[in-house]
Amino acid sequence: MSATKFEKLRLSITAFLLVSWVLGAIHTSGAAPIPGEKLPPIELATSKGITRSAWLKGRVTVISFCAFWCDTWKEQSRRLDSSRQALQGLPVDWTMISVDGRWSTKSVDGKWSDIARDALLDAGSQWTHRLDVISVPYTLVVDGKGELLFATQGIARGEQLRSAVRVGLGISSPVKGNVHLAIDDFPSRSPHFDDALLDILRARGIKATFYGSVARRQGSPAIVKRAAREGHKLRLKLPATTTNIIDPFDFKVVGENELLRRITGSLRPGKTLLIRSGVRDSVEILPRLLDSAQAQGLTIRE
To answer: Domain range for residue 66?
Structure first.
């Protein structure tokens, strides 16, 4: 590829990513919202044919997508009910959504709360697909403006759930702190993605630590010099003693939505986020990821 074509490709990738950042999160079908972004209005019917909204303006809502043919809904129902009891008296709504519209008579058993009995049925899985729910349970906490505060796959941890609800109610503030950004395998064999990554970080005023072997650096000296010139740290290898690492295994190409879920669900102060250079999905999600971290009160740094 000629230098001119390479530069045009790099600029087009960078322009796309930065325009997406400026315009904010614009979701199309299949784009999963992450903390800091808005959840669209969702209206579904119960097994009794009563249509209602999954969340209401002005109310903090916990929404849990479940499948009644998978027994995980039972433990999830217990966790939701336990958290509701712990937050009793506070203006919080609790909603369970059946991902495929199926409903189980087991949910009306006396040992299950009305959260399960009054589940909304996503017949045809329209919202399940639109929000790219690929595993259950999938639990969200939404504030009164429809902004997503918390999202997690698997059976929800009660304390994390209650903490997000308290933030939504204004009872407590998000836990602020630093998340360290580590970029491994730098430089990569896809220099246009490396340049696009650096463009995003420069536009945001964010510094990262780049890890890569001497051989990699010798093979692409220009991009290495650029990273150093723009204030990033260059290291040979991530120390084996590094703890609290968030490794989303982005090299396995799991898709943007799943990659975002793996990362945003684990972001906490003091964590080190490890992504690889040259991975297209990692570069493309970076603007949304940085926005989400900021919305959660987190500062990304080297």
So the answer is: 43-169
pLDDT at 90: 94
Residue 282 included in any domain? yes
Statement to judge: residues 89 and 144 lie in one domain: yes
Q: Are the C-beta atoms of residues 86 and 162 closer than 8 Å to each other? A: yes
Collect all residues with Cβ–Cβ distance below 8 Å to 156 and sequence separation of at least 6: 64, 76, 79, 80, 137, 139
Using CA atoms, how far apart are residues 104 and 69, in angstroms rounded to an integer? 8
- Whether 35 is in a domain gets the answer no
Specify whether the backbone of 183 is left (phi greater than 0), alpha (psi in -120 to 50) or beta: beta
Please count the other Cβ atoms lying within 10 Å of the Cβ belonging to residue 248. 24
d(CA 187, CA 217): 6
Q: List, for residues 69-99, the tens digit of each pLDDT value.
A: 988 998 999 999 999 999 999 999 999 999 9
CA torsion angle 268 30 275 207 (round to 10): -70
Within a domain: 280: yes
Helices 158-169/72-86 angle, 10° precision: 50
Mean pLDDT, consecutive 10-residue stretches, the chain (302 aa), reads 55 44 39 88 94 95 94 91 93 95 76 85 93 92 94 90 93 88 94 95 96 92 96 92 91 89 89 95 94 90 90
Domain count, the chain: 2
pTM for this predicted structure: 0.77
Residues 50 and 153 in one domain: yes
The CA distance from 56 to 164, in Å, is 17
CB contact burial 57-87 (16+ within 10 A = b; e otherwise): eeebbbbbbbbbeeeebbebbbbbbebbeeb
Tell whether 249 and 136 lie within a shared domain. no
